[in-house]
TrEMBL record, chain A:
Primary location recorded for the protein, binned into one broad class: membrane
Protein name according to UniProt: AP complex subunit beta
Taxon lineage: Eukaryota, Metazoa, Chordata, Craniata, Vertebrata
Gene that this polypeptide is encoded by: AP1B1
GO biological process, any: intracellular protein transport
Pfam families: Adaptin_N, Alpha_adaptinC2, B2-adapt-app_C
InterPro entries, A to Z: AP_beta, AP_complex_bsu_1_2_4, ARM-like, ARM-type_fold, Armadillo, B-adaptin_app_sub_C, Clathrin/coatomer_adapt-like_N, Clathrin_a/b/g-adaptin_app_Ig
Bilayer topology annotation: Peripheral membrane protein
Residue stretches making up the Beta-adaptin appendage C-terminal subdomain domain: 828-938
UniProt GO molecular function: clathrin binding
Localization in the cell: Endomembrane system
UniProtKB/TrEMBL annotation, chain B:
Lineage: Eukaryota, Metazoa, Chordata, Craniata, Vertebrata
GO cellular component annotations of the record: clathrin adaptor complex; cytoplasmic vesicle membrane; Golgi apparatus
Membrane topology: Peripheral membrane protein
Keyword Transport among record annotations: yes
Family classification: Belongs to the adaptor complexes medium subunit family.
Principal localisation: membrane
Name listed for the protein in its UniProt record: AP-3 complex subunit mu-2
Biological process per Gene Ontology, one example term: vesicle-mediated transport
Organism per entry: Orycteropus afer afer
Superkingdom to which the source organism belongs: Eukaryota
Gene expressing this chain: AP3M2
Length: 939, 418
């Protein structure tokens, strides 16, 4: 007597038979028939034809039969809307039933019938049930509102159900509260603008009370809802944290992770000096570790989240390295995540253990995993400098195993190690060369060729080695071809005598026989370089390469902060903001971590010295392999472009333009050894310039020649106050020099002579670089224009406001004093372009409390215009990103006294207001930098 | 919230589907099948799969994929936890959770699923509440139902859902009042070649079977509660008392439940009860290799080690193995290369060993990877962490219950690298 019998009647006329049974007089037979119908339904058979017959069975006292019919109705009402109306009456009647179970069941089922016509009839019973005396009915009704909203949102709003639902948040029963929160959250998701969950300290308190008493699932809803609240100060944040921490001991991992989310978010508001802060950090580690002993699927989600947590607050898990060690029967998706976290946690203290583990993994069966493990060793070497030697010897051991894919991966990572620690481990080159023949993957071949080219002078048979690759030149992938071309040119420059033939061969292969424009163009550039000016070629091709450092596979700090707010959600699994993948992108609201509150700020020194930043705690960043190789390939075009993809592509554009436009002039007339600023030939004007100037900007960060924005002259010293001498002036910055343009007017009746000027000590050490030279005496009503060059080497004293300059002017009559405010942008120096990696690192380094945000209103410019405008005043755009239609510009500038200011400028199309976030170690300059921005952009 | 659920067997047939909102076409599972094909083994299918309009979250248990479909941003852990709960519930209802059993009880399954979620929101997931709503099938009940025409759907309001202790039924009566607690610990460990411990941790649980009349209020105290690094409680446990006094105070659910799970991490020294001596030699360019392993007790506090099973995945190059065990049975599957040796109990006087030769692919070089040895064992009457229950008291009821506490240690993921 099992249910499988219901599946067996698959003969013809089955529907017909069932119909007869459903209309049978015998109760038992009816029930059996309904069961058969349900069974057919569950396996996806279409039994909708039986609709009227099944609905007829609904008028019954038998609870099971009723439930079964309800199940059927929910499935098929949509396809038979007219028939479904027949059922309405029964529902309405059941909603009045004395038994709360029946009432709840009826209201629950009604909500699942997704037929417009029925929903109208639903409203009245639902309204009653929302106010039912029985909490079980109320909580079911709360969910029903969400269902109804899904079917007909307008109806729900018109009927005022949303308000009733909000009232339920204050219900006495925790289960009702939890369901109301869940329903509201779901509704809010499709209505991002509406302020459904209006959280205030009172409602938060109610939620926290309900949190302790409701079911585990309810706790998840409440915690997720709490996470959206921003406490007003650190005290409130702490008290919420205290009440949330017990949830970390819940058996349900989803509850734990939601609690972690709330804590991670609110922790941001707590001062690090607080004892409680430390306690909280300690409390977070064990539950996270315990999540890793759960089922593999749970582990996976937990690991993805831990990956974020480790990046944000590495101190939480720094002692828990061992729990991330891989067990050989972990599913591959768990293994790879663990490996990633291991590298993030690797430090000098645990590197020995980590390396031993990684070496063990490199002998496992799973090829993908083995490869990742080998790469991980390389990443460790770059990350933990002290371990580099160990890593290299481990890699050599692995190369000795001669397992093909291990060797190839090892060579790829050794190349990276060479770039990080040049001239240190070259002794291993011989071993690498032995394995030349076994390399069959383009990436490994390219890496090996790079090594041979780079160290050609130490490899006796470098020419033979490279020549051997040349034979099959056209069968190689582009990556290898480009690398081979560069390597041979390097070889030629190092050993010109023996390799002339080789280099000619490769140049002709690249330029004449290849269809690949990149390869051809690079070939031509080398060719011209070599034929016109071998010295310049040497400078370019063998230029010193900047070290690769702990670069980025770290998540960008702003994105990371956003993702921390999404711990435990799909966004945290994908490491993408929800807007990037949520269906339809229904205007998802951006979340951000709460700023540290005012009261806590006072406890921390606002003037963090530049060196005082806790850089040791910052997790290291290592580039994804692809990027690295990209860098390598671009290496010889100019110093490596580790800039954003945008910048990289513009360089390539530039190169193409060069060939198309003024190659001759460039190569012919330019001496690459000269300072790049002078190397921009005047005839390469604007059209090519865009690509070209980018190219040069990236290489040396030289600004344009046009100079910064100059404000119109303003009257500084009115004649009234200075016995007839009127001084007006402005500040300019041109080609690296600052000057004060003065206009002196004699409004007195006597001749003025013997002018001199002096500055009081000021914040940036501005001082006249030359005496004030007024050659002829100034007769009455005469005006003279003078440009006074300024230097920034004068003595320094902090002024209030910061850009205040007190000036004394003397003439034959008297000494006059006035003070003026200089625009800060005259202090922006030409080499204020930060390297992208450095930018990322610095942005992270600077504590969040140093961040200042400003609005620049009424500035209807697009990103390009903004960027070029700012560029002319030495504010350099390092990267541009487009996030959901908004342009984000990342910019840097440097003041004459070496203070870096990093900026993020958000431009929304159609919105004339720009949002400017500034980060600087000396936060007091932010305000003035903002003013400078505003002046530049508005003029 | 959770939109739909599909149950898929290992041959890729969808044998049950349930929708809590609108019907999602089963063609959405094609994305799952693609992922399944890419993953070489069922265990390796990623638990979160994005599709253009939905997300598929799955768990794999008892050779069945439970695939949940969601459409909006829902916490994935919530979905995965819920899926595991579904599996646990099925197991609880039917004893085993397998395709034939689910098919046999499809109506109950459907009814249970309907009660567990409403519109994708969890409704009743506590097994004792579910059982009040829908009685689990028993042979007797099936017979009675057929004769009397009654049903296995309860028509009581699940009273527990409304009370302050939603996990407990009211009006419970027993003639014999008993409370049993099992302290079960699992050691997860990785031991390296040389026998030293790389990482070891203990996952412990206290499972209880409480059959007490009325509303008993229990307290359970430990001799050494500080041992526990991280604890997760059944909702019945009063967290405040634990925080302040390190005492478990609770009104228990009726019947079987997990009172507590805890974690003793690698920081505390974890005793390793067994060791494995191994010498596995793949001689280069010879078609014979030598294989020898011995298992022996280490820190067992004088208790016997039972139920020892040694398994190891041998490298592909091993064609066959000819071994002799000093005790127990062994098998080697030349297709999957899985070696399994059921040792049984370890006699410290005469250590069990397995010796012999491996026939290797002729001419092939030494295998790239070393086999890892997986160990299972049990030790009765011992909690390896040293955790001991001090006393169990009952308040709120007058009768004297019968109390019992049992300890057991098992191997969890216990791996020895060679």
């Amino acid at each position: 007597m099992t249910d499988s019998k219901y599946f067996t009647t698959t003969k013809k006329g089955e529907i017909f038979e069932l119909k007869a049974e459903l209309n049978s007089d015998k109760k038992e037979k009816k029930k059996e028939a309904v069961k058969k119908v349900i069974a057919s339904m569950t396996v996806g058979k279409d039994v909708s034809a039986l609709f009227p017959d099944v609905v007829n069975c609904m008028q019954t006292d038998n609870l099971e039969l009723k439930k079964l019919v309800y199940l059927y109705l929910m499935n098929y009402a949509k396809s038979q809307p007219d028939m479904a109306i027949m059922a309405v009456n029964t529902f309405v009647k059941d909603c009045e039933d004395p038994n709360p179970l029946i009432r709840a069941l009826a209201v629950r089922t009604m909500g699942c019938i997704r037929v417009d016509k029925i929903t109208e009839y639903l409203c009245e019973p639902l309204r009653k049930c929302l106010k039912d005396e029985d909490p079980y009915v109320r909580k079911t009704a709360a969910v029903c509102v969400a269902k109804l909203h899904d079917i007909n949102a307008q109806l729900v709003e018109d009927q005022g159900f949303l308000d009733t639902l909000k009232d339920l948040i204050s219900d006495s029963n925790p289960m009702v509260v939890a369901n109301a929160v869940a329903a509201l959250s779901e509704i809010a998701e499709s209505h991002p603008s509406s302020n459904l969950l209006d959280l205030n300290p009172q409602s938060i308190n109610k939620l926290l009370t309900a949190l302790n008493e409701c079911t585990e699932w309810g706790q998840i809803f409440i915690l997720d809802c709490l996470a959206n609240y921003t406490p007003k100060d650190d005290r409130e944040a702490q008290s919420i944290c205290e009440r949330v921490t017990p949830r970390l001991s819940h058996a349900n991992s989803a509850v734990v992770l939601s609690a972690v989310k709330v804590l991670m978010k609110f922790m941001e508001m707590l001062s690090k000096d607080l004892d409680y802060y430390g306690t909280l950090l300690k409390k977070l580690a064990p539950p996270l570790v315990t999540l890793l002993s759960a089922e593999p699927e749970l582990q996976y989600v937990a690991l993805r989240n831990i990956n974020l947590i480790v990046q944000k607050r590495p101190e939480i898990l720094k002692h828990e390295m061992k729990v991330f060690f891989v067990k050989y029967n972990d599913p591959i998706y768990v293994k790879l995540e663990k490996l990633d976290i291991m590298i993030r946690l690797a430090s000098q203290a645990n590197i020995a253990q980590v390396l031993a583990e990684l070496k063990e993994y490199a002998t496992e069966v799973d090829v993908d995993f083995v490869r990742k493990a080998v790469r991980a060793i390389g990443r460790c070497a770059i990350k933990v400098e002290q371990s580099a030697e160990r890593c290299v010897s481990t890699l050599l051991d692995l190369i000795q195993t001669k397992v093909n894919y291990v060797v190839q991966e090892a060579i790829v990572v050794i190349k990276d190690i060479f770039r990080k620690y040049p001239n240190k481990y070259e002794s291993v080159i011989a071993t690498l060369c032995e394995n030349l023949d076994s390399l069959d993957e383009p990436e490994a071949r390219a890496a090996m060729i790079w090594i041979v080219g780079e160290y050609a002078e130490r490899i006796d048979n470098a020419d033979e080695l490279l020549e051997s690759f040349l034979e099959g030149f056209h069968d190689e992938s582009t990556q290898v071809q480009l690398q081979l071309l560069t390597a041979i040119v390097k070889l030629f420059l190092k050993k010109p005598t023996e390799t002339q033939e080789l280099v000619q061969q490769v140049l002709s292969l690249a330029t004449q026989d290849s269809d690949n424009p990149d390869l051809r163009d690079r070939g031509y550039i080398y060719w011209r370089l070599l034929s016109t000016d071998p010295v310049a070629a040497k400078e370019v091709v063998l230029a010193e390469k900047p070290l690769i450092s702990e670069e980025t596979d770290l998540i960008e700090p702003t994105l990371l902060d956003e993702l921390i707010c999404y711990i435990g959600t799909l966004a945290s699994v994908y490491h993408k903001p929800p807007s990037a993948f949520v269906e339809g992108g229904r205007g998802v609201v951006h979340k951000s971590l709460p700023p540290r509150s005012a009261s806590s700020e006072s406890t921390e020194s606002p003037e963090a010295a530049p060196t005082g930043a806790p850089s040791a705690e910052q997790p290291d960043v290592i580039p994804p392999q692809g990027d690295l190789l990209g860098d390598l390939l671009n290496l010889d075009l100019g110093p490596p472009v580790s800039g954003p993809p945008l910048a990289t592509s513009s360089v390539q554009m530039g190169a193409v333009d060069l060939l198309g436009g003024g190659l001759d002039s460039l190569i012919g007339s330019t001496n690459f050894t000269a300072p790049p600023a002078a190397a921009v030939p005047a005839n390469l004007g604007a059209p090519i310039g865009s690509g070209l100037s980018d190219l040069f900007d990236l290489t040396s960060g030289v600004g344009t020649l046009s100079g910064s924005y100059v404000a119109p002259k303003a009257v500084w010293l009115p004649a009234m106050k200075a016995k007839g001498l009127e001084i007006s002036g402005t500040f300019t910055r041109q080609v690296g020099s600052i000057s004060m343009d003065l206009q002196l007017t004699n409004k007195a009746l006597q001749v003025m002579t013997d002018f001199a000027i002096q500055f009081n000590r000021n914040s940036f050490g501005l001082a006249p670089a030359a005496p004030l030279q007024v050659h002829a005496p100034l007769s009455p009503n005469q005006t003279v224009e003078i440009s006074l060059p300024l230097s920034t080497v004068g003595s320094v004293m902090k002024m209030e406001p910061l850009n205040n300059l007190q000036v004394a002017v003397k003439n034959n009559i008297d000494v006059f004093y006035f003070s003026t405010l200089y625009p800060l942008h005259i202090l922006f120096v030409e080499d204020g372009k930060m390297d992208r990696q450095m930018f990322l690192g610095t942005w992270k380094d600077i504590p969040n409390e140093n961040e200042a945000q400003f609005q620049i209103r009424d500035c209807p410019l697009n990103a390009e215009a903004v960027s070029s405008k700012l560029q002319s005043s030495n504010i350099f755009t390092i990267a541009k990103r487009n996030v959901e239609g908004q342009d984000m510009l990342y910019q840097s500038l440097k003041l004459t006294n070496g203070i870096w200011v990093l900026a993020e400028l958000r431009i929304q199309p159609g919105n004339p207001s720009l949002t400017l976030s500034l980060k600087c170690r000396a936060p007091e300059v932010s305000q003035h930098v903002y003013q400078a921005y505003e002046t530049i952009l508005k003029n | 919230m959770i939109h739909s659920l599909f149950l898929i067997n290992s041959s890729g047939d969808i044998f049950l589907e349930k929708h809590w909102k609108s019907v999602v076409s089963r063609s959405v599972c094609d994305y799952f099948f693609e992922a399944q094909e890419r993953a070489t083994e069922a265990e390796n299918v990623p638990p979160v799969i994005p599709t253009p309009h939905h997300y598929l979250l799955s768990v794999y248990r008892h050779k069945i994929f439970f695939v949940a479909v969601i459409q909006t941003e829902v916490p994935p852990l919530f979905v995965i936890e819920f899926l595991h709960r579904v599996v646990d519930t099925f197991q609880d209802y039917f004893g085993v959770c397998s395709e034939p059993v689910i098919k046999d009880n499809v109506v109950v399954v459907y009814e249970v699923l309907e009660e567990m979620l409403d519109n994708g929101f969890p409704l009743a997931t506590e097994s004792n509440i579910l059982k009040e709503l829908i009685k689990p099938p028993t042979i007797l009940r099936t017979v009675v139902n057929t004769i009397t025409g009654s049903t296995n759907v309860g028509d009581q309001l699940p009273t527990g859902q409304l009370s302050v202790v939603p996990w407990r039924r009211t009006g419970v009566k027993y003639t014999n009042n008993e409370a049993y607690f099992d302290v079960i610990e699992e050691i997860d460990a990785i031991i390296d070649k040389s026998g030293s411990t790389i990482t070891a941790e203990i996952q412990g649980v206290i499972d209880a079977c409480v059959k007490l009349t009325g509303m008993p209020d229990l307290t359970l105290s430990f001799m050494n509660p500080r041992l526990l690094d991280d604890v997760s409680f059944h909702p019945c446990v009063r967290f405040k008392r634990w925080e302040s006094e390190r005492i478990l105070s609770f009104i228990p659910p009726d019947g079987n439940f997990r009172l507590l799970s805890y974690h003793v991490s690698a920081q505390n020294l974890v005793a390793i009860p067994v060791y494995v001596k191994h010498s596995i030699n793949f001689r280069d360019s010879s078609s014979l290799g030598r294989f020898e392993i011995t298992v022996g007790p280490k820190q067992t506090m004088g208790k016997a080690i039972e139920g020892v099973i040694v398994t190891s995945q041998m490298p592909k190059g091993v064609l066959n193995m000819s071994l002799t065990p000093s005790q127990g049975m062994h098998t080697f599957d030349p297709v999957t290369k899985m070696l399994s040796w059921d040792v049984g109990k370890i006699n410290p006087q005469k250590l069990p060993s397995l010796k012999g030769t491996m026939s290797l692919q002729a001419g092939a070089s030494k295998p790239d990877e070393n086999p890892t040895i997986n160990l299972q064992f049990k030790i009765q009457q011992l909690a390896i962490s040293g955790l001991k229950v001090n006393r169990l008291d009952m308040y709120g009821e007058k009768y004297k219950p019968f109390k019992g506490i049992k300890y057991m240690t098992k191997a969890g993921k216990f791996q020895v690298r060679t």
